Hints:
The complex is a heterodimer. By secondary structure, chain A is of the alpha/beta class. Chain A folds into two domains: 34-144 and 308-369, D-Maltodextrin-Binding Protein, domain 2 (3-Layer(aba) Sandwich), CATH 3.40.190.10; 149-305 and 389-429, Periplasmic binding protein-like II (D-Maltodextrin-Binding Protein, domain 2), CATH 3.40.190. Chain A has 17 helices and eleven strands. Chain A has helices spanning 2-26, 44-60, 73-85, 97-105, 127-131, 155-160, 172-186, 201-210, 226-241, 248-251, 278-284, 322-334, 336-342, 352-358, 364-376, 391-406, 412-429; strands at 34-41, 64-71, 92-95, 134-135, 138-139, 142-147, 149-154, 192-194, 268-274, 289-292, 308-315. In chain A, the strands form three sheets. In chain A, strands 2-1-3-11-6 form a five-stranded mixed sheet. In chain A, helix 2 (44-60) packs antiparallel against helix 13. Chain A is globular and about 65 Å long. The termini of chain A are far apart. By secondary structure, chain B is an all-alpha fold. Chain B folds into two domains: 2-54, no CATH class; 71-307, MetI-like fold, CATH 1.10.3720.10. Chain B is built from 14 helices and two strands. Chain B has helices spanning 2-14, 16-54, 71-78, 81-112, 119-132, 136-145, 151-156, 173-183, 186-198, 201-209, 214-243, 246-251, 265-275, 279-307, and strands at residues 57-58, 66-67. Chain B starts with a helix and ends in a 5-residue tail after the last helix. In chain B, 28% of the residues are buried. Mean pLDDT of chain B is 85; it is low at 1-14. At the A-B interface, helix 3, helix 10 and helix 16 of A face loops of B.
Amino acid sequence: MTKTRISRRALMISAAAVAGTTAAGWRPAFADDIRLRMFWWGAKERAERTEKANRLFEQKHPGTTIAGETLGWSDYWPRVATQVAGRNTADVLQMDYRYIFEYARRGALLPLDEYVPKDLNLGDFSPAAVDSGKVDGKIYGVSLGLNSTAFLYDRQLIQTLGLKEPAWSMTWAEFGDLAAEITKAAKKDGFYGMMDGARNEQALEVWLRQHGKPLYTADGKVGFEEADIAEWFGFWDGLRKRGAAAAPDVQALDMGEIDTSLLTQGRAAMVFANSNQLVGFQAAVKGKLGMSMYPSGGAGAKPGQYLKPSMLWSIAASSKQPKAAVEVVNFYMNDKDVDLVLGVERGVPASVAMRQAVEPTLDELGKAQTQYVSFIGDKVGALPPPPPAGAGEVQQLLRRVNEQVGFGKLSVADGAKQFVTEAKAILARG
Amino acid sequence: MAVALSGQGPRAAALPGRGRWRLKAELEGYAFLLPWLAGFLGLTLGPALASLYLSFTDFDLVRSPRWIGVANYARIATDDPKFAASMHVTFFYVAFAVPLKLAFALGVALILNKGIRGLPVYRALFYLPSLLGASVAIAVLWRQLFAGNGLVNQLLAPLGIHGPSWISNPDTSLYTLIALSVWQFGSPMIIFLAGLRQIPKDVYEAASIDGAGWWRRFWNITLPLLTPVVFFNAIVQTIDAFKAFTPAFIISAGTGGPIDSTLFYTLYLYQEAFAFFRMGYAAALAWLLVIIIAAFTAFSFLTSRYWVHYGD
Lengths: 430, 312
């Protein structure tokens, strides 16, 4: 009997407990209970740092919780577009310089000017850094860090082979020669001095700018001509034939992410990348990595590279809690504690005060990045206008046409002609 | 009308209880149907009709759709080289993958039908790839198998064959996807096996007594009596092949490369929608695929009377 009674009581208690938790789960949020959603792209390292930063924010702002969501770069943009279409956008979302104009002009992002400087303090930002988040004169994004393109290489391997490391002062031809020497000295089947950079949009842009031409003009047209592309394809075709750059069937396995990069896969010693990616690459590669600027283009060349916001925080125009969302962004930009958690994984902080705060705490990889950004400071050109709609498709086109040339389906001249014709058609379509 | 009504009136009046009962039963039936019906209307028919509407618009997901009439369809028909390229890839894939897969499935089913020991084990084993087939893990595995230094080339090396990187070579990459499809022969095989069991033994006995050899029996008895199953499998597999997406998406990281050699129609459709945000155009492409599949299926049904032999 006793046993029955206890079990009945236990049953009642557990039933009450279940009812209680169910009720708690469904209870409407209290008026001062703010829930925000934050969405960013990136790998594991970034997710861990961001979650830590958000817990820190919650500690300092009781009553507000931030739910983080994250995806890889290529899955992130379809999801953002779907969320915007479904009026279900995260309150705080990571934007890229490539996309911010499109989203801002379509009314998906909140202009932040009215919150500056009272709620959003950008006092420690250089005017250029603030401007990098402006669209049509209004602030739609706040820079999470500065980066630039960077050439990453397996320093350990190059030293072992007894060759000299790549340096920014070298010309493109000298880079090619170095790559050929590495291939020869490494004597490994299917291993190359460097990746096939012809398909790399950033490499092409830097090279074009050194020739005084933009990749895209301010009014959204192509800034290059057939002759430029023919020279570009021709240069790389030569390197492929000398074995300096990766063969097309090896390069085709590179999907443009860190984990499929030829450097990570142990198939090339040097690749084109971004400065903040040093952290991600080093986590995936055993040998010690080095970082240098892209080839300078030699005497008389104009600056090819530029400093850009590696990513920005934006706030959805549809956010029901814009004020709280601004508070989060402000926290990321100005709180010294959060700075120490984030480090330079997203790039070197744009705020001077934050940069100074984070500098002493950085490890070797972090220091290399801040040094790199300071080093290139006087060697870079102006930030170009953001790429026009359709630029993503042109990027894919560059890759395809370069494969056609690489696999011998098109001559260099025909490839250049096809690329320019199709690129113009894509941009005209938008 | 009037006659029918007056005819029904007295019957309904004569059996009031039963009429009410029938109505109740019908309502109950619809009530049970409701969850499915709500799902069908809300999750299938509704979105399908919405996509039909969107196919006549210019829609980038963020701004409201803008009606542009048949411009999307006109562009597909007249001014889209990528459409032609993806059609070529898809038809090539369907034309090779479906017959090869069916032939392979039938072959294995014939062997298993010999009454070998441990049949359930083999059946389960051979069915396994069909369960795994559409998964991301298998597509990744395939990439490793057919890479330059992958398992396939390592097996070929002792034979003196220095294979290319199959998966990243535009001349061979599509064949690796066809191989992947053939490897998933499990579900048609199971259906073939069931079909083979249906063929009466005495027909074979009679044929044997008449001196028919294995090939003769297969060609004149097995195959004709199996045609309904072949027909069913062919239709299902053809539709599946037209809709194939995951392997190409994973293996080429969504690009359809190298050089668009694995740019399936569905992959191109996906790119237009989710990489380039042309939802209206992608919706038009999707509806064209519906029409193509429907046409193929209708064609198969029309020709079936000439080659499919039903028991009756």
